[in-house]
From TrEMBL:
Stored Gene3D superfamilies: 3.40.50.2020
Record Pfam families: Pribosyltran
UniProt protein name: Competence protein ComF
Family: Belongs to the ComF/GntX family.
Positions of the Phosphoribosyltransferase domain: 126-175
Superkingdom, natural source: Bacteria
Length: 176
């Protein structure tokens, strides 16, 4: 549900039909708007690593209630991380002094999500797999990404983790 909503938003209703077995609790710090889009472009695509500290305090405050959870950033492909020079999600978690575990890895390099249409994003095949030698059974997880657009990326992560016996998954993004 979106912040301050009494009912499920369109996205949540759609995902509930596709995945009735999942109850997704999503938290976003901000609404995605022109100012956030500008910040994100400078940070993620412009390579301005110092912007990782912009939201460190609010991130720390928001995730404080999940101390008993394992924080898991959604991964980039190795090629994308090399291209950018850093993983934007790991960087803002480090800036907020939040420890995390890389339980997921991206299976292949693909066209950036920002260049895909909504339909292309929604029909994307499972891009993740569990990192080698990682056990997720019985864990409570906060899955973290930078932006929630269609929800497809988040749901791929939730789907994989849930199939592997995770006890609970909540999701968090900077903006939606």
């Amino acid at each position: 549900m979106r912040p301050n909503c009494a009912s499920l938003c369109f996205d949540c209703q759609r995902w509930r039909k596709i995945y009735p077995q999942f109850t997704l609790q999503h938290q976003a710090l901000y609404h995605y708007n022109a100012a956030f889009q500008d910040w994100l472009y400078r940070y993620k695509f412009g390579g301005d690593y110092n912007l990782a500290w912009t939201f460190a305090q609010p991130i720390k405050e928001k995730l404080k209630k999940y101390r008993s959870f394992t924080i898991v950033p959604l991964p980039l492909s190795k090629a994308r991380q090399k291209e950018r020079g850093f993983n934007q999600v790991e960087a803002f978690l480090k800036a907020a002094n939040i420890s995390y575990e890389n339980l997921l890895m991206r299976q292949h390099h693909d066209t950036p999500q920002a260049l895909k249409t909504r339909q292309e994003r929604l029909t994307l095949q499972q891009p993740y797999q569990i990192a080698l030698n990682q056990s997720v059974s019985g864990k409570k997880i906060v899955l973290v990404d930078d932006v929630y657009t269609t929800g497809r990326t988040i749901y791929h992560g939730v789907e994989l983790l849930s199939q592997l016996g995770v006890k609970e998954v909540v999701t968090f993004t900077l903006a939606r």
